[in-house]
């Protein structure tokens, strides 16, 4: 499935989502690697197979390198773990948990295989999909240390929001059709 096919698969009630997918695919605020990595990371964070396939196909067609694609998937994987852990620490009223070492392997953060800023953008997008405010703050702070403009961070968040919405619609429609 291509991005156009994904857009066509969205029902009429989700026309805004389809239009947003199209406009974000043409986004120029981010580099192509940043943009398509955010799409891939967000799709993997949602885990909806049809959406993952469509977005990976679009990213491949746009020239996202295999290394960047792997790093985007790694961002989704590591944030899938970190977002649950750190969101839990944030939600627990017992502050003692925050004083304990996480003792979770996170080696990919030190050497993601792509520019650190790109990986941070993708981690921010995935943290938005997964709803972890603590991780969003941490990644946004890191991006600001690298002088990433607010508009670039917002673009990654917009991609995350639209991919998440498309995934929810496709998952619901697929479930209803079964």
Keywords:
single chain; 9 helices; 178 residues; AhpD-like; mainly alpha; 74% helix
Any overview of this molecule?
By secondary structure, the protein is mainly α. The protein has a single domain (3-177), classed as AhpD-like. It has nine helices and no strands. The mean pLDDT is 96.
The sequence of SSEs as H and E is HHHHHHHHH
**N-end to C-end Cα span:** 19 Å
**What percent of residues are in strands?**
under 5%
CATH topology: AhpD-like
Structural class: mainly alpha
Per the principal axes of the C-alpha atoms, what is the gross shape? globular
Please give the share of residues in helix: over 70%
What's the count of strands? 0
**What's the CATH H-level homologous superfamily?**
AhpD-like
CATH architecture: Up-down Bundle
Number of domains: 1
Average pLDDT confidence is 96
Number of helices: 9
Low-confidence stretches: none
Oligomer: single chain
Radius of gyration: 16 Å
Q: How would you characterize the largest beta sheet?
A: none
Broad CATH class: Mainly Alpha
Question: What is this entry, summarized?
Answer:
The protein is mainly α. It has helices at 3-9, 15-25, 32-46, 49-61, 66-91, 96-99, 116-130, 133-145, 150-177. It has a single domain (3-177), classed as Up-down Bundle (AhpD-like), CATH 1.20.1290.
Describe the secondary structure blueprint for this structure.
Layout: H1 3-9, H2 15-25, H3 32-46, H4 49-61, H5 66-91, H6 96-99, H7 116-130, H8 133-145, H9 150-177
Helix pairs in contact: 1-2, 1-4, 2-9, 3-4, 3-5, 3-7, 3-9, 5-7, 7-8, 7-9
């Amino acid at each position: 499935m291509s991005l156009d096919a994904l857009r066509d698969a969205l029902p009429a009630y989700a026309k805004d989502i389809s239009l947003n997918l199209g406009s974000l695919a043409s986004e120029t605020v981010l580099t192509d690697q940043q943009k398509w990595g955010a799409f891939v990371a967000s799709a993997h964070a949602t885990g909806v197979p049809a959406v993952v396939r469509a977005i990976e196909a679009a990213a491949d067609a746009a020239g996202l390198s295999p290394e960047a694609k792997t790093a985007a998937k790694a961002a989704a994987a590591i944030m899938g773990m970190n977002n649950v852990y750190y969101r839990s620490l944030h939600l627990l009223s017992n502050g003692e948990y925050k004083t304990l070492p996480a003792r979770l392997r996170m080696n990919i953060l030190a050497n993601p295989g792509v520019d650190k800023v790109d990986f941070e953008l993708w981690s921010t997008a995935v943290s938005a999909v997964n709803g972890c405010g603590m991780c969003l703050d941490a990644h946004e702070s890191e991006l600001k240390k690298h002088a990433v403009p607010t508009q670039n961070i917002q673009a990654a968040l917009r991609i995350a929001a639209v991919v998440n919405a498309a995934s929810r619609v496709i998952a619901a429609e697929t479930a209803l059709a079964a």
